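REVIEWER CHECKLIST
Item 1: Sequence provided? yes
Item 2: Single chain? yes
Item 3: Sequence as submitted:
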Amino acid sequence: MTSNFLYDQLVQQHKQPHITREELLRFYQTYEPGLKSSTFAWRIHDLKEKKLLTPVKQGLYMLSGKPSFHPIITPILKKLGQTIHSLFPNAAYCVWNTAWLSEWMIHQPGRFLSLVEVEAAATESAFYGLKDQGYSHVFLNPDARLLERYVYEERTSIVVKTLVTKAPVVLENKIVVPVLEKLLVDLFIDRELFASFQGQELINIFNNTYRQYALNITTLLAYARRRGREKDLSGFIDKNTQLNAFLHV
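Item 4: Structure as written out by the authors:
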């Protein structure tokens, strides 16, 4: 029997979108009663490599084969990332733009932010470094008053903020960007900064990203824990979103 045949049988027999490691093992054992643990581990690895099985949290997987999130890196954003890396080659950083969120929203904001997140030791230097490089409308950790009076008055602004230690980021098109799970957590926590993405729009963003892309609930909650808001985020997910099924498996 081929691996594709077994996967087709698995999808037909298992009606839920997620499956536990134990359920997956029992399924394979019906076809291979003497299945060794090493072989089973390879079966899981093979399915993950083929994007047919997506880890959600420890011992839990999605069968949908949803793709990973790969944002569009505009030339302007790429240049911004390259500038930060050239100025501070040893500093942890990431860059992104709130325009990425548009596809998951109903009401489209008229203004967008470019975010530059840099490790604490280099955050202030990054702010001045960008201004020295000719970037305009650059703001350092703006508070609510600054956001309302200046940041959102510009059609495009750059916000420099401190990158949380061990925040989940990834290299995309030669610059470092946040993973989707980080975006969701930051939107939930930094409500003043991301005021345009709150309320029902925040629920829309969570639900639409869940439907469209592979999400790792372990990564999501671990990052929220680093920011001291895991319990609050879990409550929001449980009450408002379609991700709540993962909290009870």
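Item 5: Key structural point noted by reviewer: DSSP finds eleven helices and nine strands in the chain.
Item 6: Recommendation: ____
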